[in-house]
C-alpha cells in the first residue's frame, strides 16, 4: 500500500497564509549578510517566504517587510527579480 507524501507548508510573511512550499518564493540572508532569492529552497541562512503574486511583492516592498524578517537591508533589485518571477514587470 503506497502512502501519500505530505506536502510541506510554509507561511507567506505578508499575507500570513499557509501555502505549499512550491507556491512560494524563498528569500535568504546568508550568514555573510548577503540577501538573494533561493530558487532551490535549500541554501543555508535565514529565510523568508513570499507569495508568487505581484500585488503581495509590491506590498512587501512598500512596507519593507522582507528587511524586517531577514534583519538585513534588501536591495531594490531583489524586488525587481521577484516581480519578474511573478510574471509582472515593474512600471
Gyration radius from CA atoms, angstroms: 14 Å
The largest beta-sheet arranges its strands as 4-3-5
Kindly estimate the percentage of residues that lie in beta strands according to DSSP.
Answer: 15-25%
Run of helices and strands: EEEEEHHH
Distance between the termini: 53 Å
Largest sheet: 3 strands, antiparallel
What would your notes on this structure say?
The chain has 91 residues and is α+β, with helices and mostly antiparallel strands. It has one domain: Hypothetical Cytosolic Protein, Chain: A, CATH 3.30.1230. Helices cover 30% and strands 24% of the residues. The chain contains three helices and five strands, in the order βββββααα. The strands form two sheets. A three-stranded antiparallel sheet has the order 4-3-5. α1 (54-63) packs antiparallel against α3. The longest helix is centred in the C-terminal third of the chain and has 11 residues, at 76-86. It is globular. The chain starts with 8 loop residues before the first strand and ends in a 5-residue tail after the last helix. The mean pLDDT is 91.
